[in-house]
Amino acid sequence: MTLTAVRPRAALLASVAGAMIVALDGTVLLVAQPDLRGDLGATVTEVQWTSTAYLLAVAALLVIAGRLGDHYGHRRLLCVGVLGFGAASAGIAFAQGIGPVIALRAAQGVFGALLQPATLALLRLVHPADRLGRAVALRTSAIGLAAAAGPVLGGVLVTHWGWRAVFLINIPAALAIAALTLAVRTPEVPRTADRRFDLTAGALLAAALAALVHTLAGIPDEGWTGARTGLGLLLAVLLGAVLVAYERRSAQPVVPPVVARSVPVTASMVLLLTTSGGLFGALFTVTFFLQQGLGLDPLTTGLRCLPLTLLMIAGAPAASAALGRFGPRRTAITGQLCVVLAVLGLSRPGSAGETGLVLAVLGAGFTAVMVTATGTVVGDAPPGYAGVVGGLKQTAMNVGPALGIAVAAGLMPLTPSAVADPGHRLLPVTDPALGQALPAVAALAALGLIPASLLPRR
């Protein structure tokens, strides 16, 4: 079957649209949560669980979903995932209590996990190596655009139609993506992966990831020294150790040995984890400082961060060109150095123009790493395992931000009494939010230079 017959344009559109609906949903919800809380009479903790339940389901099931896609077809998984995502959104839009909303958000996370690895696997199946980088760059730009547009779109929808509208818009989008997916034709791939699936290994992996993400998400409230944090990390480590021991004896490991032994794939996963941790840890700290330290409102804070968004969108094509000219290793190292230096630059307060310039460097560096690592992950995936590799990539992109925020939050005064007393609303510019948290986040990002140096030269 030729590449013309498999309709690469339809596959690219389905991949981009599938990635965008997930990115848009996450940022739109942030704007809708206050209205949702008031309408349903929910507590702050219950509202937080509308995000946590989704995050836990996605993080726990991404690798398993990728493995299922390798078994049963990524086109099928994408179609099922996006239709389920839309159905769960419809249920949330008509829910009459916070309990059903939380449960349906978890279901939405399950279907989100099904569709995300498939969007990457489709790119690998229908694009030759010399065109794969451009497809990945376009997908990266689209995700950045969706994430940036989310708060604006959410504000318009909530203002005019209420919080339910942010979920209703997912329904026609999901139907359109499903129809587009049905138009995709993919070449036959040799079934190198066994069709049987080890449920025990899958359950152990899901439990370990859920424990880790839940613990990291709780660090802003508990701190690194809290009892729950220690118990949660211990549980995650124990489950991980049991999983590794079980996988060594399993005939059908959830992460096949051919994937685990691939240096480019493994290095790219670690690189994505540390880089996304650096970006989100820095954003968490900077937005906290701008609003709580300098007293800026959310809109002004968003405008201050606009250079970051613009470079994430516009920088993807340039990153793709650099990847083709200089190769993965040099492009990734350069991008990672930009991330590290930008995070360190943000640790010293500056003017709005200086902050915007540093954020632009951060966005450009992050995009260069994203395009390079994603292209390497997808391009170097062993035949028949594009789905599980895509799931690992998305898992790194979910755990990384949680880790980066945890690192930053563990060094910041997040309680109201610590942030400010009634007579002093603004934090001093030398506050640990910048002076201690951001160097630690930069150190996390700097760890990514090690896996970046292990990527292929060409």
Textual characterization of the structure:
The chain is mainly alpha-helical and 458 residues long. Helices cover 80% and strands 0% of the residues. The chain has helices at residues 8-40, 44-72, 74-93, 98-126, 129-161, 165-168, 170-182, 199-222, 227-249, 257-260, 263-293, 298-304, 306-346, 352-379, 386-409, 416-419, 432-435, 437-446, 449-452. It starts with 7 loop residues before the first helix and ends in a 6-residue tail after the last helix.
Largest sheet: none
Net shape: globular
Distance between the termini: 28 Å
Strand composition percent:
under 5%
Rg over CA atoms, rounded to whole Å, is 21 Å
Number of helices: 19
Mean of residue pLDDT values: 81
Helix content: over 70%
Q: What are the secondary-structure elements, in order, as H or E?
A: HHHHHHHHHHHHHHHHHHH
Regions with little confidence, pLDDT below 50 for 5+ residues: 1-6, 415-430
Class from secondary-structure proportions: mainly alpha
| Strand segment tally | 0
Compose a concise summary of this entry.
The chain has about 450 residues and is mainly alpha-helical.
Keyphrases for this structure?
19 helices; mainly alpha
Topology diagram in text:
Blueprint: H1 8-40, H2 44-72, H3 74-93, H4 98-126, H5 129-161, H6 165-168, H7 170-182, H8 199-222, H9 227-249, H10 257-260, H11 263-293, H12 298-304, H13 306-346, H14 352-379, H15 386-409, H16 416-419, H17 432-435, H18 437-446, H19 449-452
